[in-house]
């Protein structure tokens, strides 16, 4: 494997809606969690030098706004450059939100880890345990699917809700958020699995939505309130679900390329489906706050966190078929296991890297989306981490 830290080489697929897809043709990653040895500080760009490099990249690629956060030996540094809307004077602020897409998945798994430690559920809690009435309503193949299998994309469920199921669900929706999510889930679980559960990895946003539903029952509250209670409040970060445009504050706007020009683009997710999918891809954060979340995972993998046990942090970063719980986990030459993910809902893009062996994490986000830009952003993020690689 090439030693340049590159998302393509590390097997994070660039995929469609709400994604950072798991699995690849690269060699299987080790089945043990990454080393927790704490390294000496590594000289990465900081301060004005970091800001200048981010701005150079943004302006040379004519992007609306970019934010980068780096966690280096427990210190968080974040920069943001550009504008909320392309070719405007609406400067993007450090507090502005970016839609993180499937980076939500690791946060969902982390919230469930809190419920596990509170003994409100187990990693091997099954769907039928949480929803016993579904025993006669859903296909038997799904009855014993566990929350861990859902979080590892090993449930056999398809990637997305299909149009026919959405149409079937519409007459059943009442406006009660929790009840409507369960009604749609029952319909989804009446379709045959694409593969036998736990037989292989099949990236599924539906699986994460169902894990969120199981947490709602176990935690006695909505998914969104559980995330506030178990993730955002304990870590002292502020988050929203949906899109920054929905937050009711001055904030970023998402963009897509139209005829070669960045154009402000309203959210494109189907509103008939959006209420169901927050646990898979609905998270909005500024990257300074998101870095606090990444830092806690680094701390936890080193046994230095009171937020969750080291064992549960390790479980989340231990791969089966190169996927943990909300993380692709692959082995990179000179770095050991690296946890990483990307995400988009097609008007924003974000990706991350967590490198426990170096006690370093990085996140990058843009209020824009295009496949070519995703590649450029990831290559730029990797360039910021080049000092980590063997010389």
Automatic annotation (TrEMBL):
- What keywords are assigned to this protein? Membrane, Signal
Going by the entry's taxonomy, the superkingdom of the source organism is recorded as Bacteria
**Where's it mainly located?**
membrane
List the residue ranges forming a coiled coil, or say none: none
Subcellular location per UniProt equals: Membrane
Keyword Cytoplasm included in the entry's annotation: no
The segment(s) forming the Beta-lactamase-related domain are: 51-374
Which InterPro entries does its entry note? AmpC-like, Beta-lactam-related, Beta-lactam/transpept-like
Q: Signal peptide position in this chain?
A: 1-20
Q: Does the keyword Transmembrane apply?
A: no
Q: What is this protein called?
A: Beta-lactamase family protein
> Can you name the source organism?
Undibacterium umbellatum
């Amino acid at each position: 494997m090439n030693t340049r830290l590159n998302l393509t080489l590390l097997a994070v697929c660039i995929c469609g809606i709400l994604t950072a897809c798991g699995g690849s043709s690269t060699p299987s990653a080790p089945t043990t969690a990454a080393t927790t040895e704490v390294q000496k500080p590594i000289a990465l760009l900081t301060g004005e030098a970091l800001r200048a490099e981010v701005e150079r990249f943004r302006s040379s690629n004519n992007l609306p706004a970019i934010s980068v956060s780096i966690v280096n030996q427990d210190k968080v540094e974040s920069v943001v450059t550009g504008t909320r809307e392309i070719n405007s004077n609406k400067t993007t602020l450090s507090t502005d939100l970016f839609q993180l897409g499937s980076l939500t998945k690791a946060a969902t798994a982390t919230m469930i880890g809190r419920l596990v430690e509170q003994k409100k559920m187990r990693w091997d809690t099954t769907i039928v345990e949480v929803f016993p009435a579904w025993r006669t309503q859903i296909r038997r193949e799904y009855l014993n699917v566990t929350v861990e299998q859902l979080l590892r994309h090993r449930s056999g469920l398809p990637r997305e809700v299909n149009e026919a199921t959405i149409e079937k669900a519409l007459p059943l929706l009442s406006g009660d958020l929790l009840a409507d999510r369960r009604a749609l889930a029952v319909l989804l679980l009446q379709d045959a699995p694409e593969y036998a559960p736990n037989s292989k990895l099949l990236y599924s946003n539906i699986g994460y939505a169902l894990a969120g539903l199981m947490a709602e029952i176990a935690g006695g509250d909505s998914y969104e309130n559980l995330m506030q209670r178990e993730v955002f409040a304990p870590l002292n970060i502020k988050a929203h679900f949906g899109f920054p445009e929905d937050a009711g504050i001055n904030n970023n706007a998402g963009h897509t390329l139209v005829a070669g020009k960045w154009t402000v683009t309203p959210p494109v997710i189907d509103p008939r489906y959006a209420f169901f999918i927050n646990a898979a891809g609905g998270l909005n954060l500024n990257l300074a706050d998101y870095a606090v979340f990444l830092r806690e995972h680094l701390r936890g993998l080193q046994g230095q966190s009171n937020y969750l046990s080291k064992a549960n942090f390790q479980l989340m970063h231990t791969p089966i078929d190169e996927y943990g719980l909300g993380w692709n986990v692959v082995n990179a030459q000179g770095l050991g296991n690296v946890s990483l993910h990307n995400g988009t809902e097609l008007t924003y893009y974000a990706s991350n890297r967590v490198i426990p062996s170096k006690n370093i994490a990085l996140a990058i986000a843009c209020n824009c989306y295009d496949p070519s830009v995703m590649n450029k952003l990831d290559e730029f993020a990797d360039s910021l981490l080049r000092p980590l690689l063997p010389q």
